[in-house]
Amino acid sequence: MNHPGYTVTKSPVTKSHPIQWHNLIRALWIGGLAVYIIHLNTTDSLHYYLAPTMQRLLLCCPVPFLFIAAIMAWHGLFGNSQLHCDCEHPPPSGWVRSSLMYGLIAIPLVLGFLMPDQALGSSMASQKGMSLSYGPPEIRRKEPLPDTAELDIKDLSKKNANVESSVPATKVQFVPPDEYSREFAELAEKLYAESVIKVYPEIFSETLGSIDMFQRQFAGKAISLTGFVYRDKSMDQESHFALGRFLVMCCPADAAPFGVMIHIPNADSFPTDSWVQIDGTIGSAQVNGEDTIEIQASKITPVDQPATPYIYTSADSVKAYGKLQNK
């Protein structure tokens, strides 16, 4: 019997979706990601992909990932075939769409396990552009530059070295051009006091930045540093190459190649991308019309690629330099 004022409504029918295998695939992917992070950490390969500060954050992820994977695997093995919620994001329907979606997610993880972990080299440096300049140019314009039209690179370095060697060490001053360069000036004073300037990887860019900013004061000083051999078409490959390192702020995607010009008569005998240690003296050159430092190499020693090939910025290079010296 019908009663006025009452309407009969049918309850919505919940569509059944066999989602167990979706949960199992997702559990496998999340668990695989956790295992991959653990694998990178145990093989000491995380530095190929992340800066040290980011590595500590990433290492917090495997345990939560494994927990989520275990919960999803439990639902996949023992859960029912109904949707767990009434949200508007159901799993993909059909084998084709499911395979396409999960395949796109799985490919990066599979490639991560299969492809070797290796550092960036000359190929990427040529695409990004090797930087041979570190500091602002104002500090290097206090006296007129020599007429480079009459001098080659080697002669320019010798002339600057002779000028600086005649100045007593007590009169050498490092005046920062601005407040932001004060740290470079403080580091330069400590570097200048050394008989041989050792460029530590921990403060690689800061050390070369200080030398580049005060290159006239450092002309003729002995130096030792390590990096990979880089060349491009603009270099005289018989006598020059650049010694490069990649500066990483977060990950290789933002890696910036930094280098310093090396002069040695048999430069072409050292293969591109090989790692070498340079011992020599600091000189100067002009690259594309800009002043830059150049190392007159007296000795080049092939070395193995370091365990951590990238370099990173230091929050306090002066303090870091003191700690490195005390080791």
TrEMBL record:
The record's Pfam families line, in alphabetical order, gives:
DUF1980, DUF1980_C
Record keywords, A-Z: Membrane, Transmembrane, Transmembrane helix
Q: Supply the InterPro entries for this chain.
A: DUF1980 (IPR015402), DUF1980_C (IPR048447), DUF1980_N (IPR048493), UPF0703_membrane_permease (IPR052955)
Q: Where is the DUF1980 domain?
A: 25-130, 178-312
User: Is the keyword Ribonucleoprotein assigned to this protein?
Assistant: no
Span-the-membrane segments of this chain are 57-75, 95-114
Q: Does the keyword Phosphoprotein apply?
A: no
Domain of life, per lineage: Bacteria
User: Any idea what this protein is called?
Assistant: Putative repeat protein (TIGR03943 family)
**Lineage, please?**
Bacteria, Bacillati, Bacillota, Bacilli, Bacillales
